[in-house]
Amino acid sequence: MTYTPSPGQQQVLDADDEVVLVLGGAGTGKTTTAAAKARRHLEDHARAAVPVQRIAGAPPIDRVLFLSFSRASVARIVDRSREILGPFSEQVEVTTFHALSWSLINRFGSLIGLSDPYLLSSAQAKLFPRTDALKYADLVPRALELLAHPAVVAHVETRWSLVICDEFQDTDDGQWELIRAIRGAAQLLLLGDPHQCIYANLPDVVGVSPQRVEDVRTMTGTRCIELPEASFRDPSGIIPAAAAAIRRREFDGPAISTAMTGGQLEVHYDADGSHEAAAVAQAVESLQSDGLSVAIFSHHNDALAALSDELRLIGLEHEITGLSESLTAAIDAQVAMAQFARGVCDWKVVLQYLAIFITSAVRGKAVPGLAHQVLGAQPASPAFSRRLINLRDRLSGEGLDRALAFARDAHAELGLTSKVTAWARAATLASSMLEEARRRVHGGDDNTVLAALDLIADANRSGQLTEYASEPEGAIQLMNLHQTKGREADATVVVLRGNDFFGFEKTEPYQDGSRLLYVVFSRARKRVIVLTFGSGHSGLVAPFVRLAIT
Ligand SMILES: Nc1ncnc2c1ncn2[C@@H]1O[C@H](COP(=O)(O)OP(=O)(O)OP(=O)(O)O)[C@@H](O)[C@H]1O
Questions:
Q1: Helix axes 254-262, 238-247, angle to 10 degrees
Q2: For the whole prediction, is pTM greater than 0.80?
Q3: Cα 175 from chain centroid?
Q4: Ligand 1: which residue has its CA nearest to atom 3?
């Protein structure tokens, strides 16, 4: 992409105010301009005759912190801004609030009694809750505790000279406090769109509201730059106008009819929900045959996992966004199999990791029955029990390489159906970890190699939970509606079901739900296909059924 800033974007690049709040609708280039701003900031710093020294006596700071919410959005920022940042990439730390907190806890945790912190994945927390381990939700609060210590404050205050926060409208109270605590004298660049505030009503979220943007706008020292509405994502303006009309509930207005007549928006309805996966696959295939990249959006994690399984059964390969926890769980299970083979751990440990892997494939609160069966908490079918015993017998006493080869095949041999790709990728990674372990111990015996492998897997486990993993180029991404934030694809397929629950809003104008729909419908560059199924749709999405029928 050649990035030539628009006049509004140029103002952002030039602004040197203490706090710069950039407001703009979907696709107006906030994130892209922030990357360009990071580069400009670092270029100015490198050129300055007197280097930027934001705190008297401290060394000049030539690093930028770019904070975002999810690992998926960090991956997207890193991938997309590489070209813009060029040689300055190394000086820009793109990370999530949770990863930043985890790195502070790792470095300074002993100050608050966390000298050997252990982070539980959500699957682990569901299966084996532990009071002495940290959960994801603990990270930001514990980092804030640390930031009460002068040594930690001194470390963070001299680390960055520009701090950027993407999707600022969705920061919760803890995240906002974290930004202010780490900032020191750094310039703050906050990117937001109150119309895209979609976390306000999620459970366990405290303080998210469009009001946060208003509060900062009126804060002393803030310069607010509003980008004009023109979207770079779809320069024709047709999809952005339709998305804005959906947000305003103008389903019968000209923006929607223009998009439908021009083919940028297609809406279908099938009262019988049993053909969902086939219809999704058909839509995806038709879009792909037009050379378009595709993302599939669906509500509810459990329904999304079910759709994913069905799509896989009918041969539509895809990646579920934000489920890299499964990859980590698969590596852990395979490493445990190698350890069991060499007599370093019990079979019970292998079963525990296998249960965690199976649980990690499922979103939501539920633990799958199969995980309980693996752990012996529920009776397993004779066939599945036999397969487990066969695997155990085959692994027993094997050498490390052959054990990992058996582990690679275990997914198919056990007849598991979910997360085939994660298991296969894990096998490749586990083999290279084994080589790395061998290099580290220079010809040590198997036990020494396994101890090194354990350390490598351990570092990987924390890293996977908090760091980003790039998504494979060109893969079809399947995600829930809340994860669509900040994403884009040539075409999107939006699945809306009669039994989807959109919260307790029951009357027009569905303010909260409409912000979610605005995000969802503003992601496509060229086309959006809506597939509605079943009956009794929530009032929020019922107009789509009407659009399909009329
Ligand atoms: N000046 C520009 N010239 C060309 N393309 C641009 C420009 N600015 C942004 N874009 C492109 O427009 C698209 C949207 O940009 P970006 O994701 O930065 O917008 P955003 O405001 O952060 O969007 P959203 O709020 O929807 O996440 C991207 O594909 C980006 O590369």
A1: 140
A2: yes
A3: 16
A4: 3
Do 7-226 and 238-318+475-547 agree at the fold level?
yes
Which of 2, 11, 12, 32 maximizes ligand 1 atoms within 8 Å of its Cβ, making it the mutation to test the pocket?
32
- SS3 label, residue 360: helix
The 3-state DSSP class for residue 304 equals: helix
Domain segments of the chain as ranges? 7-226, 238-318+475-547, 324-466
The answer to whether 528 touches 492, Cβ cutoff 8 Å, is yes
238-318+475-547: which CATH number, 3.40.50.300, 3.40.50.1370, 3.40.50.12780, 2.70.50.60? Answer: 3.40.50.300
Q: CA 19 to CA 292: how far, in whole Å? A: 39
**320 CB-near residues (< 8 Å, 6+ apart):** 304, 305, 308, 477, 478, 479
| ipTM of the complex in this document | 0.99
> What is the CATH code of the structural domain delimited by 7-226?
3.40.50.300
Q: Grade residue 203 by pLDDT with cuts at 50, 70 and 90.
A: low
pLDDT mean across residues, the chain: 89
Q: Which ligand 1 atom is the nearest neighbour of the CA of 523?
A: 26
